[in-house]
Amino acid sequence: MSGNIKEIVQEKYGQAALRVVSGQGNACCGSSPSSCSSGADPITSELYDELQKSELPEAAVLASLGCGNPTALAELKPGEVVLDLGSGGGIDVLLSARRVSPGGKAYGLDMTDEMLALANENKRQAGVENVEFLKGEIEHIPLPDSSVDVIISNCVINLSADKDKVLAEAFRV
Description:
- This protein has helices at residues 2-21, 50-54, 58-62, 70-73, 91-99, 113-126, 163-172; strands at 81-85, 105-110, 131-135, 150-153.
- Helix 1 (2-21) crosses helix 6 (113-126).
- The protein contains seven helices and four strands, in the order ααααβαβαββα.
């Protein structure tokens, strides 16, 4: 069952990234490309302020599939290492990288090739150097023990069939 869930998530997120890259609108998984940005839902719309969005490539903003803004809650400081679980197109990684500079680093972890390609292009366009996108699953984080100061995630943990493993891995790193 968990393999099936993972395959479905990977397929949907890959399709979402391709929609952004092809110019077909945002990455929202709703019935239409504009269904998640209509502004009708005050909890899930306008999560990032205009200043934040102005510092990012448009594709990074359009590719956001999250249900919140973890960078608004995280108290990031220069020099810290931050990891975004399920980083998608990289919006939260790019915003975090600016906040942990100088001396810090932001990692993004995603299992979807299409999202990783989009995230790396967004990194290039944003001109942010202290970012690295990693391919992997949130149940098996490809980083050494005790290598991260802060972990953020934008609702991706909810998509895992083994949340205990995700939390154990987060604690490990």
